[in-house]
Amino acid sequence: MVKDNSLSTKILTLIVHITMIFVLIVTLYPVLNVFASSLSSADANNRGIVTIFPIGFTLDSYKMIFTAGAVPRAFKNSVIYTVVGTLINLILTTSFAYPLSRKSLPLKSFYTWLVIITMYFSGGLIPLFILVKNLGLYDTMWALILPGAINTTNLIIMRTFFQNIPHELEESAYLDGANEFVIFTRIVLPLSKAALATVGLYYAVGHWNSWFNAMIFLSDQKKFPLQLVLRDIIMLAQTLQQAAEAGDLSARQELGLINAKGVKYATLFVSMVPMLAVYPFVQKYFVKGVMIGSLKD
Amino acid sequence: MEVTFSKKETFQTRFKTFWKSMKKTKYLHLLALPGVLYYIIFHYIPMYGVIIAFKDYNFRKGILGSEWVGLKHFIRFFENPFFWRLIRNTVLINVYQIIFVFPLPILFALFLNELRDGFYKRFVQTVSYLPHFISLPAIIGMMVMFLSPTDGVVNMILQKMGLPTIYFMADPRWFRPLYIISDIWQHLGWGAIIYIAALSNVNPELYEGAVIDGATRVQMMRYISIPSIMPTIVIMLLLRIGHIMSLGAEKVLLMQSPLNYETSDVISTYVYRRGLVYGEYSYTTAIGLFNSLINLTILIIANKITKRVTETGLF
Predict the structure, then answer these.
(1) Domain ABC transmembrane type-1 spans what residues (chain A) (predicted)?
(2) Which domains does chain A have, with CATH numbers?
(3) Which of B20, B31, B223, B268 to mutate to test the interface with A (most CBs of A within 10 A)?
């Protein structure tokens, strides 16, 4: 093989490596900094000297958010919404994706159009809000779960996966007297564990990270998920800060009282930790999902 | 007579075969039923609900009982002094996204392709996905804290350099740059996946042949890698352009305050505020409808262009 020693190649290699290192630093530093700050003393945080290692190591911030305030309850709510929501997502998505994957299903094109149209046109925020109110879902956890019970991209990923299961398996089961329902639950689903895991994790990440639906559909603070509580903490800090900058003394005092920076960092980190813990292990499945999802029919 | 009769019969026989195959696949339709109901209830009923854009929606009278008012709400929106500001802000953020956010994942994928397979490459790739898994409130939360004028690290550095403090989150001039930079941060790695996949499908013989011909790495990138992912780039670009008038409210709402409305207020946040906070249901539904119609038009045009350029369209 000819060795490529040209100047342009050397420059390219240099640029590539600089870019990669830059991406690594810029991506990792903020997250590590948040983690380190959440474990640092108030003094170190206020002086702004924490980088990626805790200074004046303390677990006080975590003790504080997990013994008082809205965080423990919100954490529990988020877990419930994520688990129940994902389960319902998976049941509805797979049971609709399976018929859509069958080549010779009568009405198949009707079903497909029913789904495709919604990708390009929707009623918008307000009609959905009115619907949720009229259905009596407002201020219940179902308002966070039912309106997004099926995500069309995930439906397509699931259908594509089902399409690739050898049809002969189903055929022989059918000849043995199994009906489609039995075939679906006993043969197709057990063969689809990888796809179920991928799509399930997509849904779970979505539920865990969502806050907007909770903001518009929930009024009872006891039902708030963690991300919404986090948003309120951040927003409060922002508003107080702006007031303090405008010279509002009481705001300045209040800011001093609640501005345990570590507490904010700890809340932030707690909101990220489940996803940070799982993503390195599951990202390869996710990547496959992205590629299937971007396929067109 | 005979003609209609035979037509009727073919219809009947057709219906019979249809019914027979429906019966044969009844369990499949039963499986599909919850999904169909979901789409009808949570997608089609809200589409029907859009008619309140032409009515004065009254909670007591319901969607059907409320009075028709024609295009009143649309006209009110067009005459709104903020109309152009909302359009400008929505479109500008999208244009900046296309200019700055769109090309970087492509570049990142090309650069990643230059690395040899191994731990280093996998590590960079895995790390680059990380921000995708962080929620928007957390991302904006980090931004607020790092950029805080009183104790944020960025302003501390500025101070040490003898520069004036910048009120990043409150300054309308900083809204768009911050929105775009955080978008890049969050989506660089994840957005590259599709191009990485396209690059991995390039026939390795092309590169081998190029090496024998004495091509440099830069030449291979230019004449093999980039042309082979061009169709993907074009489709992604046109898809992106198709959404130039739409921008979700979620991220903007997290970064927004009355102090930066000048650059931050977009159609979706205006709809949220006037609709859900002030309860102007009909007016904001009209705005939403106007917005989605424009979107749909742009998307159809973009799709036509895609079809002409790449012979495959979105629909």
Answers:
(1) 75-276
(2) 1-57 (no CATH), 67-294 (1.10.3720.10)
(3) B31
Q: What is the CATH number of the domain that holds B102?
A: 1.10.3720.10
Considering only the beta carbons, identify the residue of B47, B112, B129 that sits closest to A122: B47
Which of these, A166, A84, A37, A149, lies nearest to B37 by C-alpha position? A149
Contact A120 B50 (CB under 8 A): no
Residues of chain B positioned with their CB less than 8 A from the CB of A139: none
Amino acid found at B234 = V
Cβ atoms of B138 and B146 within 8 Å: the answer is no
Angstrom distance (rounded) from CA B242 to CA B53: 24
Label residue A297 by pLDDT band (50, 70, 90): very low
Q: Taking CB atoms and an 8 Å limit, are B128 and A23 in contact across chains?
A: yes
What distance in Å separates the CA atoms of residue B118 and residue B178, rounded to the nearest whole number? 34
Maximum pairwise Cα distance, chain A: 80
Q: Does A278 score more than 50 pLDDT? A: yes
The answer to whether A131 touches B63, Cβ cutoff 8 Å, is no
pLDDT in tens, A146-201: 999 999 999 999 999 999 888 888 888 888 878 888 888 888 899 998 899 999 99
User: Would you say residue B21 lies in a domain?
Assistant: no
Q: Do B111 and A19 touch (CB under 8 A)?
A: yes
Do A15 and B296 lie within an 8 Å CB cutoff?
no
**Tens place of pLDDT per residue across chain B (315 aa):** 445 556 666 788 888 888 888 888 888 999 999 999 999 999 999 999 999 999 999 888 888 888 899 999 999 999 999 999 999 999 999 999 999 999 999 999 999 999 988 999 999 999 999 999 999 999 999 998 889 888 788 998 899 899 999 999 889 999 999 999 999 999 999 999 999 999 988 888 888 888 888 888 888 888 899 999 998 898 888 888 888 888 889 999 999 988 899 999 999 999 999 999 999 999 999 999 999 999 889 988 888 887 777 666 555
| Token pair 């179920």 in the structure block, residue | A196
Answer whether residue B63 is part of any domain.
Answer: no
Question: Which residues of chain A make contact with B130, given a CB cutoff of 8 A?
Answer: 27-28, 31, 276, 279
ipTM: 0.88
> Which residues form the domain of B265?
83-135+174-310
Q: Which of B148, B217, B243 is the mutation pick for testing A, counting most A CBs within 10 A?
A: B217
Q: How far is CA B196 from the centre of its chain?
A: 21
